[in-house]
Amino acid sequence: MREDIEYISGVLDELEAIVQDASSVPMRKGRAVVDRADMLVMLDELRGSLPRELSEAEAVRRECAAVVAAAEEEARRVVELAHERSEAMVVDTELYRRSQRRADETVDRAERYAEEISGGSEVYQDRVMGQLENWFEDSIVSVGESRRELNGSPVRRPAPQPEPEEENGSGEDWRASSA
């Protein structure tokens, strides 16, 4: 082994000498022209003198990488299987069934509440539209009266009639807002 290292060191020294003695490329600092054949011969000698253990080590490294990859894949599969089993086991528990019932009841309550709100908004909308309609009618009557007064005709105003009370089912007083 020691002889191999000494030989490799000698080949590397020869490669260094080839590069040091190479002709410089004009106007290209740091560039040189080397004899390709000499360089290839030296590289072949270097490759041939490498200890056999290096190629064996590379084979072992590749084999280790394959074993690690297979182990990682197996671990991923085991974790995935464990998740699937745990999800299946959760469905079979009383706690899960109770939680599911409570969730269903909550959804039902929310849907009923939404229907109540929707019905209430329709009542509110109808009442606001009625108030607007009355306001516009009163405004038209007032404009007509003002016109007649401007023309010098006396105006007799009828007594205001109270609005009928509607039952909205919730006992709340629906009023139009200025918003």
Topology:
Elements: H1 2-20, E1 23-24, E2 32-33, H2 36-49, H3 52-91, H4 94-150
Report on this model:
A hairpin with a 7-residue loop joins strand 1 and strand 2 (32-33). The protein has a two-stranded antiparallel sheet. The chain starts with a helix and ends in a 29-residue tail after the last helix. The protein has a domain at 1-50. It has 179 residues and is mainly alpha-helical. The protein has helices at residues 2-20, 36-49, 52-91, 94-150; strands at residues 23-24, 32-33. Mean pLDDT is 81; it is low at 168-172 and 174-179.
Q: Helix share of residues?
A: over 70%
Please tally the β strands and state the result. Answer: 2
Kindly report how far apart the N and C termini lie: 94 Å
**What is the count of DSSP helices, taking H or I runs of 4+ residues?**
4
Based on CA atoms alone, the radius of gyration comes out at 48 Å
Q: Report the biggest beta sheet as strand number plus sense, adding barrel if it closes.
A: 2 strands, antiparallel
Structural class: mainly alpha
SSE order in H/E notation? HEEHHH
Rounded average pLDDT: 81
Shape: elongated
Low-confidence stretches: 168-172, 174-179
The spatial strand order of the largest sheet comes to 1-2
Proportion in β-strands: under 5%
